């Protein structure tokens, strides 16, 4: 009976310990919005630009990140992707602006321009971003966002 009681309490502590660890991962996804987009120099037949993301942490604990990955869709179609080796901490109930360089090939941009020509002439386009803040030992934090963004003049009216 004494051995059975020890096993019972060991199992109980294990379950309570796992429940405590699970609460560490119970956090809301960051709130992300595109704060701006600026062209930068590209190589050969590619277009490059920096997307400025405003990232808010709605959690009681800070989010540490060591790297960022981002995919951008325009008008529901894949457009560009990029990564950054930036690292930092998103403070609890805080926000920051992250700059992520994105690349799109000129061929892909031209292909997309035909489908977006009317939208781009207006100077704004519906967007969707999907990405992650690469995490520490507690894992990565994924996010998504969508809205409408005003394009810089150099990206309007075709490529």
TrEMBL record:
- The Water stress and hypersensitive response domain, residue ranges: 32-152
> GO terms for biological process?
response to desiccation
Pfam families documented for this protein: LEA_2
Please report the name of this protein according to its UniProt entry. Answer: Phosphonate ABC transporter phosphate-binding periplasmic component
Q: Which organism is it from?
A: Caballeronia sordidicola
């Amino acid at each position: 009976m004494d051995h059975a009681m020890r096993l019972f309490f060991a199992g109980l502590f294990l379950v309570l310990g796992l429940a405590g660890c699970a609460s560490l991962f119970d956090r809301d996804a960051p709130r992300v919005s595109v704060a701006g987009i600026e062209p930068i120099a590209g190589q050969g037949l590619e277009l490059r630009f920096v997307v400025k993301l405003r990232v808010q942490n709605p959690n009681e604990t800070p989010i540490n990140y060591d790297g960022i990955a981002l995919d951008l869709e325009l008008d529901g179609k894949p457009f560009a992707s990029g990564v950054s080796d930036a690292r930092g901490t998103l403070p609890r109930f805080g926000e920051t602006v992250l700059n992520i360089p994105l690349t799109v090939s000129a061929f892909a941009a031209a292909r997309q321009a035909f489908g977006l020509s009317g939208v781009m002439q207006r100077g704004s386009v519906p967007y969707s971003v999907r990405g992650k803040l690469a995490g520490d030992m507690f894992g990565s934090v994924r996010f998504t966002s969508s809205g409408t963004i005003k394009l810089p003049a150099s990206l309007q009216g075709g490529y």
